[in-house]
């Protein structure tokens, strides 16, 4: 595929991730989260990796590039929901000051043609990747259906879920060695070191009705141990956050990255 044709195809897609496709073309991702490649990762050489909530596949392809023997990109929401129509509905909910019905994502706004998977498919084609894709809601899948993997990526997903503890229990069921978990998290001034979870009503967090919870570092660690992980290691925690950017009286919101070991 020549550069002009590739650029035209890239321009047709709304990207979440910024992926280097080569020849000077980088997809214009919307995500502001620091790339996983910038942080410490477990050894992926020869490992099987499951990437839950893969979206455009940035981290799936990273795992492959790091030597993983098998990588499965799993997604459902980001690939199948018609975001444009859903966002119109959300705007109506804001105008009328009511909560949206999240169940409509799987009915009224579900598009079986998987419009949100176009970025993953194009990147896989261009990169010549062997990453496998699986469409499904991980909360409704079993280890027998998905498999058990040496390493599980669970990145930017937890705070979007209505049942965070159940979600971590499901992640544990897919994990043989270690899970890499990244999420929006909180520090509450005056309650540092406590196991707390903040709930965000309506679209309070980043204008997104689908953002529900922000755990403290201690809460996430405790939850992970309660679902069967033996220990956790914080890779990026509040100690590495530039707290000067926050108001001292406000809850501090940051991105937490943890490795949870079986």
Instruction: Give the name of the CATH architecture.
Output: 3-Layer(aba) Sandwich
Spatial extent as radius of gyration: 19 Å
Q: Major sheet, described briefly?
A: 7 strands, mixed
- Estimated helix fraction: 25-40%
H/E element order? HEEEHEHHHEHEHEEEHEE
- Strand content is 15-25%
Explain the overall architecture:
- The strands form three sheets. A seven-stranded mixed β-sheet has the order 5-4-3-6-7-11-10. The protein has a two-stranded antiparallel ribbon with strand order 1-2.
- The protein has helices at 3-11, 58-65, 77-80, 83-96, 118-127, 143-146, 164-174, 217-226, and strands spanning 20-22, 25-26, 48-52, 70-75, 132-135, 149-155, 175-187, 197-199, 213-215, 231-236, 252-261.
- The protein has a single domain (45-261), classed as 3-Layer(aba) Sandwich (Rossmann fold).
- The termini are far apart.
- It is globular, with a radius of gyration of 19 Å.
- It contains eight helices and eleven strands.
- It has 262 residues and is an alpha/beta fold.
Give the tags.
262 residues, Rossmann fold, alpha/beta, 11 strands, globular, single chain
Give the SSE map.
Blueprint: H1 3-11, E1 20-22, E2 25-26, E3 48-52, H2 58-65, E4 70-75, H3 77-80, H4 83-96, H5 118-127, E5 132-135, H6 143-146, E6 149-155, H7 164-174, E7 175-187, E8 197-199, E9 213-215, H8 217-226, E10 231-236, E11 252-261
Parallel strand pairs: 3-4, 3-6, 4-5, 6-7
Antiparallel strand pairs: 1-2, 7-11, 8-9, 10-11
Summarize the structure.
The protein has helices spanning 3-11, 58-65, 77-80, 83-96, 118-127, 143-146, 164-174, 217-226, and strands at 20-22, 25-26, 48-52, 70-75, 132-135, 149-155, 175-187, 197-199, 213-215, 231-236, 252-261. The protein is α/β, with parallel strands linked by helices.
């Amino acid at each position: 595929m020549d550069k002009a044709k590739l650029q035209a195809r890239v321009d047709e897609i709304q990207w979440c991730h910024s992926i280097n496709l080569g020849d000077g073309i980088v997809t214009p991702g919307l995500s502001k989260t620091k790339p996983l490649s910038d942080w410490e990762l477990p050894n992926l050489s020869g490992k099987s990796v499951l990437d839950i909530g893969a979206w455009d596949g940035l981290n799936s392809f990273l795992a492959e590039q790091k030597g993983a023997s098998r990588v499965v990109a799993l997604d459902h929401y980001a690939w199948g929901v018609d975001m444009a129509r859903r966002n119109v509905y959300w705007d109506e909910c804001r105008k009328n000051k009511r909560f949206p019905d999240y169940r409509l994502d799987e009915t009224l706004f579900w598009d079986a043609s998987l419009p949100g998977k176009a970025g993953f498919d194009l990147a896989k084609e261009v990169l010549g990747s062997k990453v496998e894709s699986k469409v499904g809601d991980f909360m409704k899948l079993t280890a027998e259906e998905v498999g058990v993997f040496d390493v599980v990526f669970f990145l930017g997903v937890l705070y979007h879920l209505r049942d965070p503890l159940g979600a971590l229990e499901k992640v544990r069921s897919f994990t043989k060695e270690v899970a890499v978990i990244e999420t929006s998290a909180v520090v509450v001034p005056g309650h540092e070191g406590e196991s707390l979870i903040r709930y965000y009503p309506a679209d309070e967090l980043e204008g997104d009705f689908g953002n529900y919870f922000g755990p403290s570092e201690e809460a996430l660690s405790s939850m992970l141990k309660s679902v069967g992980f033996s220990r956790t290691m914080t890779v990026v925690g509040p100690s590495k956050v530039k707290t000067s950017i926050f108001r001292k009286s406000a809850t501090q919101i940051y991105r937490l990255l943890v490795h949870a070991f079986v």
